[in-house]
Amino acid sequence: MAVLAAAAGGALSAPAAAEGTMPTAGRPGQVEFPTHCLPPQEAGLPPADGPTRARVSVDNPAPRVGDTVTVTYQVAAGPAVNPAGGELPADVLTPTGRVMLAGAQSGEVTVVGARRNGPVAAGAPLPAVTMTGTFTVTAPGGTTLAPGAYILHTGHPLDLATVCTAAAPAPASERLTATPLPTANLRHVALAAAHGKPGDKVKITGAGFTPGAAVTVAGRAGAAETADRVTATADGLGTVLAELPVTDRATTAVVAYEGAAWSSGRGSGPAAYTVIAAAPPAPGTQKLTVTAPSGTLGMTQAGEEIALGAVPYGDGGAAPGRIGTVTVKDTRGGPAGWTLTGKVTDFTGPGGVRIPGASLSWTPSCTAGAGSPSPCTAGSAGAVGPEGAVLASTPDAAPAGGTFTVDAAVTLRVPRYTPPGAYAAVLTLTLS
User: Fold this and answer.
1) What pLDDT does residue 3 have?
2) Which of 6, 264, 318, 403 is the right S-S partner for 308, CB 3.0 to 4.6 Å?
3) What is the pTM of this model?
4) Signal peptide location in the record (predicted)?
5) Phi, psi torsion values for 357, nearest 5 degrees
6) In angstroms, rounded to a whole number, what is the distance separating the alpha carbons of residues 289 and 294?
7) Burial class (CB in 10 A: 0-12, 13-18, 19+), 260
């Protein structure tokens, strides 16, 4: 776990999307829904009822949990009319609205548009508008987006607001499907003895399994299972106690797993075991036996704090930095790989002002040390966020293990006019 600090300085704003953008093939597009528009009382106009034609789109229809998605809400036409007594000048119309989420993730997204309109004659319909906003994906699965209420603010000659609400819920105009982040696998086993004669029963203690799950404890020879096998049930804490009779002389390790077969996501790493033949050596000979016990999977990190660059007040922009170098050492001696993930909290500054953790992105790198059997793959460049992202990983392979150096350049996007001061967040790394 590392603390990130940035000297920074207000509110996030999203750029307005170009009007007239067409939806991607195979995805929903423009929809129509009945609307009741209430003009400002000062205008002396009756309510306007009629259809609104609108489109909602996203910049990423296939995000991961924790990603920030930009939403664009385009109103092509609606029943609202110019509430001013005369012609409305150019660039005095400011739209705001809501986009409704349903499905895997529910709620609403606030969207805001720029002042961007041509002159509007007295009593004429108000023009098309485009609004944008962002939200963080919090749940895997399919989520639909539908246009909701919108408000048209006209700043001439007075600040007048025409409020348009849906007389009936609008149909979905966009959908996205989010994928979950990889979860940490904390399953592991320990043996009461690292060697024994054929037929000896080895006491096994496992931890990190799903409470109540059926767990298979099996012998392993390299990447293949041997004939040695028992089953047990994990208790309410995910602990497994078992005795495994080891009769297959090919057994060199013991693993435990949930499901029909071992996998890196639902199985433990191997614990080394040696079968020692009971037959005495021939006269004049001596049998030499050596045991290479399995080790552990662990990591160390250089430094406890990460200082990011300063961003001048009013300018906004990128605050660069680099995480403390992480060294991963895998001496388990089995076929299981590992995954190193990271997640970051929001950056908190003076008066509780926050910069979202999703504003932090990284570009990871990973190098395998000399002689390491496993290759190391760096995670994808992109946002880290509160839900996390992969920093580096090694695949399941036989043999696996080694020493690895993991690093990452990080960048915090600081909004313009963020209040001056020091902002801090916590970056947590998890190795599994």
Assistant:
1) 57
2) 6
3) 0.49
4) 1-18
5) -60, -25
6) 16
7) exposed
Q: Position 168: which residue type?
A: A
Q: Are 218 and 259 in contact (CB under 8 A)?
A: no
* Peptide linkage before 157 cis (omega within 30 of 0): yes
Cα–Cα dist 99/114, whole Å: 17
Nearest to 60, CA basis, from 135, 8, 3:
135
CB 356 within 8 A of CB 68: yes
Tell me how long the chain is: 432
Phi, psi of 41 (to 5 degrees): -60, -35
Residues 148/178, Cβ–Cβ less than 8 Å: no
CATH class of 297-431: mainly beta
Where exactly does CATH 2.60.40.230 map onto the chain? 188-275
**CA distances for 322 relative to 7, 208, 361, 411, angstroms:** 15, 32, 11, 8
For residue 186, the tally of other CB atoms under 10 A from its CB is 12
- So what CATH class is 13-178? mainly beta
- What's the rounded Cα separation, in Å, for the pair 380 and 59? 18
Q: Which two tokens stand for residue 124?
A: 């004429």
pLDDT at 13: 31
Residues 6 or more apart whose CB falls under 8 angstroms from that of 64 comprise 137, 178, 179, 180, 181, 387, 389
What are the distances in angstroms from CA 139 to CA 107, 242, 337? 12, 37, 27
Place of tokens 């002389």: 249
Q: Name the amino acid, one letter, at 4.
A: L
Q: Using CA of residue 52, residue 17, residue 138, residue 108, what is the dihedral sign?
A: negative
Q: Is the pLDDT of residue 354 over 60?
A: yes
Mean pLDDT, rounded, for 188-208: 90
HSE, side-chain direction, 13 A CA sphere, residue 146: 19
b/e 314-338 (16+ beta carbons within 10 angstroms → b)? eebeebebebbebebbbebbbbbbb
DSSP secondary structure, 270-297, as one string = PEE-EE---SPPPTT------------E
- The helix/strand/coil state of 235 is coil
Classify burial at 97, counting beta carbons within 10 Å of its beta carbon; exposed 0-12, middle 13-18, buried 19 or more.
Answer: buried
CATH for 188-275? 2.60.40.230
Tell me the backbone φ, ψ of residue 363, rounded to 5 degrees: -125, 100
Record the tokens describing residue 354, joined without a space. 């926050």
pLDDT score recorded for residue 20: 33
Backbone angles phi, psi at 28, to 5 degrees: -60, 160
